[in-house]
Specification:
By secondary structure, this protein is of the alpha+beta class. It is 42% helix and 15% strand.
Length: 302
């Protein structure tokens, strides 16, 4: 199990959707800064009430660099197998599950959303959900990542040589250096396009993440962002190869799958949670995008 901070309990809050969500405990990090880095090891959990093997959601970033393996880890309905030298990157909002039979060894970094400035967030692809969670760096890339992570850990643990304001600033710079390397590795694992960093698409993606549960309208997003519908269509297609409507629908389907698979909410409440007050309309939408009814999808996973 990952030992994120070498502390015991974690801040946890409930979700109306029924999936337990665990928040980043800034008060448990050294000096209360918005990041933590330390060894992975046995005998530790994200939260004292979150047993190993239970699916849960996190609202912070997690990067695990493995020193041993194999380790099997589920993220959003996909099982990933990591071994020594691999990197696993989990982003806020994703559901995941540890494997009780796997021994987690290596270093784990966690980061609170908002700890880095927006320009750095853009440059490092922190919310690039299209990047694969599991990365396989080549030996030179791994050596550079590990050296950068070790430097970050030294800065994190050194609270004696700088006042808190400067200590935090140094941490942000060291963290940025590590994440830029990680983002370069992740971008190399997909057919990345320069347009992915387009501000129009970035704003749309962030707006969808914040509003998909109630807003499925491309025009509404365009109006809220101050763009024409045509401009939004061009930006999203250049960045993802799909239409804005398809992008929204995929996010809604993913959330519906999470709720169907990992909660006991009635199907009608699942639909309502992703913006479909009418259960029949939700079932029709879900079937159109998955070729399965919500009930059949839930049954197949249980």
């Amino acid at each position: 199990m990952a030992d994120r901070t070498q502390h015991g309990d974690r801040t946890q809050h409930g979700d109306d959707d029924g999936i337990r969500t665990f928040a980043f405990p800034a008060d448990r990090s050294i000096s209360g800064v918005g990041m933590q880095v330390g060894p992975m090891g046995s005998g530790h959990t994200w939260h004292s009430e979150a047993p190993l093997g239970r699916v849960h959601r996190i609202d912070f970033h997690v990067v695990m660099v493995f020193a041993a393996g194999p380790v099997r880890h589920m993220i959003d309905f996909t099982e990933y197998e990591a071994t020594a030298g691999d990197v696993l990157w989990i982003r806020p909002g994703q559901v995941h599950r540890f494997t009780t039979t796997s021994e987690y060894r290596g270093t784990v970094l966690t980061m609170q959303p908002g700890f880095l400035p927006r320009a750095t967030v853009e440059a490092t692809g922190l919310y690039r959900y299209d990047f694969p969670p599991l990365l396989h760096p080549e030996p030179p890339q791994l050596a550079a990542l590990e050296a950068s992570l070790a430097q970050l850990r030294r800065e994190y643990e050194d609270t004696a040589t700088l006042p808190l304001g400067l200590h935090t600033a140094v941490l942000r710079h060291s963290l940025t250096a590590f994440l830029l390397r990680l983002a370069h590795l992740a971008a190399g694992s997909v057919e990345a396009s320069p347009q992915h960093s387009d501000t129009t698409f970035t704003l749309f993606r962030d707006a969808v993440e914040a509003g998909f549960a109630t807003n499925h309208s491309v025009s509404a997003y365009a109006d809220a962002l101050g763009y024409s519908r045509r401009t939004l269509v061009r930006a999203v297609r250049a960045a993802t190869g799909e239409t804005p409507k398809s992008f929204i629908d995929k996010r809604v389907v993913l959330e519906a799958k999470r709720l169907l698979a990992h909660t006991d909410l009635p199907i009608g409440r699942v639909g309502a949670a992703v913006g479909f007050p009418d259960a029949a309309n939700f079932s029709k939408f879900f079937h159109q995008h998955t070729d399965m009814t919500p009930a059949a999808f839930r049954a197949e996973l249980r």
